[in-house]
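Hi support team,

I submitted a single chain yesterday and got back a structure, but I'm not sure I'm reading the token output correctly. Could someone confirm the output below corresponds to the sequence I sent? I've pasted both exactly as they appear in my results page.

Thanks,
R.
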Amino acid sequence: MRIISFSKKWDKLNQHEFTTFRYPRGDKDWYVGEVVQVFYKSRSPQREKLGIAEIIGKERRELDPNFESITPVVTHAEAREDGFIDRGDMVVFMQKQYGLNYISLFNKLTLKWVSLSQ
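Hi R., thanks for writing in. Yes, this is the structure output for that exact sequence:
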């Protein structure tokens, strides 16, 4: 079972269903129906297993509104739902997390908790 890790304990993680934006994987991309382990800081001494979730939705999204693409752009509402102030705040976070050369094409994943860790 693969891991989805969060570097911050976002408020959205307290909801029954929540979204997250992840890069497409080159080896085996995320897919609807996949069951994953959800961790807070999975590669850290503060590692904490939050529970098990199922991916119930997957949509491609573009973060850069100036990039000419047929992929829908992340809306300000989607960015707020994901825990950011707006899309600009999300861009700043991604640049900090991944460097200035981050790729702006993401998967918007919707997950549903299957079980929470005690």
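A quick pointer for reading it: The chain has one domain: 3-116. Let us know if anything else looks off.

Best,
Support desk
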